[in-house]
Design a protein that fits this description.
single chain, mainly beta, Inorganic Pyrophosphatase, 5-stranded mixed barrel, globular
């Protein structure tokens, strides 16, 4: 697999990608004792600024999955951290920045974030 650094993940917006889910819907975070209300995983072909694969939230899938192929619709930009998070949804499904912010709040409440979309 060709692994590329992703200093500017905006280039991926609107693309279809497949991610690996390592924290499925309903699972417990291994250290922080909260439950994932959505599937959360990573894009193994791209490395984030933290040296790990790019992390991604999956919206609109309400059952645990092992992988997910969908459209990259937004970025959760962490202003006070080195890494951003991708936001994926099933093809054709759209969410506003406000909706995305509410859906990822369970984890992003610990960071100063902004939601970036193709419209932002």
């Amino acid at each position: 697999m060709n692994v590329r650094p992703s200093p500017d993940v905006k280039q991926l917006l609107g693309q279809s990608v497949t991610i690996i889910i390592d924290r499925p819907f309903g699972s417990r975070h291994p250290e922080h004792n909260f439950i994932y209300p959505l599937n959360y995983g990573y894009l193994p072909s791209h490395i984030a600024a933290d040296g790990e694969a790019l992390d991604a939230y999956v919206l609109g899938v309400f059952e645990p999955v092992e992988t997910f192929s969908g459209t990259f619709i937004a970025i959760v930009h962490r202003k006070n951290d080195v890494e951003d998070k991708l936001v994926l949804a099933p093809a054709g499904k759209r969410y506003s920045a406000e909706q995305i912010s509410a859906l990822v709040e369970f984890q992003e409440r610990f960071w100063d974030t902004e939601i970036l979309t193709n419209n932002h």
